[in-house]
Amino acid sequence: MEKAVRRIGVFTSGGDAPGMNAAIRAVVRTSLHMGIECVGIRRGYHGLINGDFTKLTFESVSDLSRRGGTMLYSARSEEFKTPAGQERAVATCKMLGLDALVGIGGDGTFSGLLCLAKRGLSVVGIPGTIDNDIACSSYTIGYDTACNTALESIDKLRDTMQSHERCSVVEVMGHRAGHLALTVGVACGATAVIVPEHPVDYEADLLEPIRRARLAGRTHFMIIVAEGVEGGAYSIGKVIEEATALDTRVTVLGHIQRGGSPSSRDRITATYMGYEAVRLLAEGKTCRVVALQGENYVDYDITEALQMTKSLDQHTYEVMRALTGVH
Ligand SMILES: Nc1ncnc2c1ncn2[C@@H]1O[C@H](COP(=O)(O)OP(=O)(O)OP(=O)(O)O)[C@@H](O)[C@H]1O
Ligand SMILES: O=P(O)(O)OC[C@H]1O[C@](O)(CO)[C@@H](O)[C@@H]1O
Ligand SMILES: [Mg+2]
Question: How far apart are CA 260 and CA 185, in angstroms?
Fold first, then answer.
């Protein structure tokens, strides 16, 4: 017989991402619709360890979908990685009478959920990270908004780079992955895009595209670098200045990419994923990650999901090479 879920705890963890609030709202409203109570755990695993919670009602999540950040706050907790920290987290769940947990975050958050599943809790993860680096899902909440935010800033940079005939080197986030950099690079019409997944050949991937653009009449250049590239944007900027004598400026976009009102894609994906997470728990499932595959919402076992690897989208990479003239 299925174990009935009566009270779910929901939390956000790791780097925040636009759309996390919409996911919280969906978890709360779906739970209530199914006759399940919902408790918000604040500050991720840190809050779970310390019993930092807030009761969530239908009204408390009103007007939330359009808001950036996360109403439950987010945190990274070293203590939770220890057995003692995990025991305290389980004790909090018992004290609050939580049958199940929904964790919204990235791969680290899912590793944490797996530890709790092994300690007997029912858990489901929702991929929320601007990095889009969750292997089992073609999309993670926050990615689209982060791409748009980066693009908006890059468009502004272009204006001043054009006026001063400069070379702009822009570093975008992504942790160790280049998904964000590649998409942004293609969308902004970059002169070159440098990602950690491919070892950089300075001549072929960076300097030749700049020279070719100059020969074609261009006087300003836009180079997109993923933060995971060794040395980051500053080392790339140095290479360009030394080899070309172009007046070069480096901009690290940083945390601005994590903020802002979520795009329609992020609100909708977050809402469906929140709904799916509660549906899975209500059906008695546990240790699952909600994922998007094409147009379909599916779910994976967390252990399996964490073992999967995600490479850069090869087609997008080929398109980028074609458009920047790299052979
Ligand atoms: N191997 C692990 N075992 C137990 N808990 C973990 C593990 N890895 C991470 N966590 C917990 O999950 C939290 C969030 O992980 P992390 O900082 O890697 O962010 P994330 O969820 O991957 O999100 P993002 O990468 O988008 O910032 C950590 O602070 C820690 O408390
Ligand atoms: O907010 P923090 O702790 O500086 O973390 C930054 C990291 O988090 C992310 O924004 C999301 O994982 C990464 O792109 C970046 O490397
Ligand atoms: Mg991560």
Answer: 20
